[in-house]
Amino acid sequence: MASMEIQNLRVYERRGLVQPDRTAGGTRLYNQDDVDRLIRIGELLAEGLNIAGIARVLALEHRLDRLQAENRRLRAPGSPGRDA
User: 18: domain CATH number?
Assistant: First the structure.
């Protein structure tokens, strides 16, 4: 993350791509999930996507993660509606 420009981080935050916590004094605190997301943003930028495209990809990836988790839950032994 050290290679990212501060201005870019602020743009990503304004666009809702990353939402770091803040200290009482307003300093941004990036956790590991934020750092991972920023790395992904960098990868997508390198592939030529613009900010709107990146936002769409991140939203779709998040949705896919949720659907995969739900699928695993439903397939787990003992799930309601699952034959034993």
Answer: 1.10.1660.10
